[in-house]
Specification:
- Helices cover 46% and strands 15% of the residues.
- The protein is an alpha+beta fold and 112 residues long.
- It has one domain (2-111): 2-Layer Sandwich (Nucleotidyltransferase, domain 5), CATH 3.30.420.
- The chain is globular, with a radius of gyration of 14 Å.
Length: 112
């Protein structure tokens, strides 16, 4: 699962669920979020390989968006997204046994 949240409004701009967390998933979420909020000044992520990939950083740099990355092992640096993950997991995902990814997606879509 990859998600982007607006720090100011705390609104979920985009998220997607997949059985792989790769650059393609992250780029899809990024492009969806940029359609809704095309001119962010800063984009904050952790230091995962998907976010440090050339395709991801190049897209942000080409749009003139400042890239901010959390310190290693510092989940509190991005508390908005960490709260989103906690809510999604504790309010939906951990409470159910899903038979398929599509079932999980439908259930989480109902939450957000």
């Amino acid at each position: 699962m990859a998600a982007i949240i607006d720090w100011h409004s705390k609104a979920v701009l985009s998220y997607k669920i997949s059985n792989t967390m790769d650059s393609q998933l992250v780029m899809s979420v990024l492009n969806d979020a940029l359609e809704k909020h095309p001119h962010p000044k800063i984009f904050n992520t952790d230091q995962g390989s998907q976010y440090t990939s050339e395709i991801h950083t190049k897209r942000l740099k080409d749009l003139g968006i400042t890239i901010s990355m959390d310190g290693k092992g510092r989940a509190t640096d991005n508390s908005c997204i960490e709260r989103f993950w906690r809510s999604a997991k504790c309010e939906r995902i951990y409470l159910n046994e899903y038979q398929s990814i599509s079932e999980l997606i439908t259930d989480v879509d109902d939450l957000y």
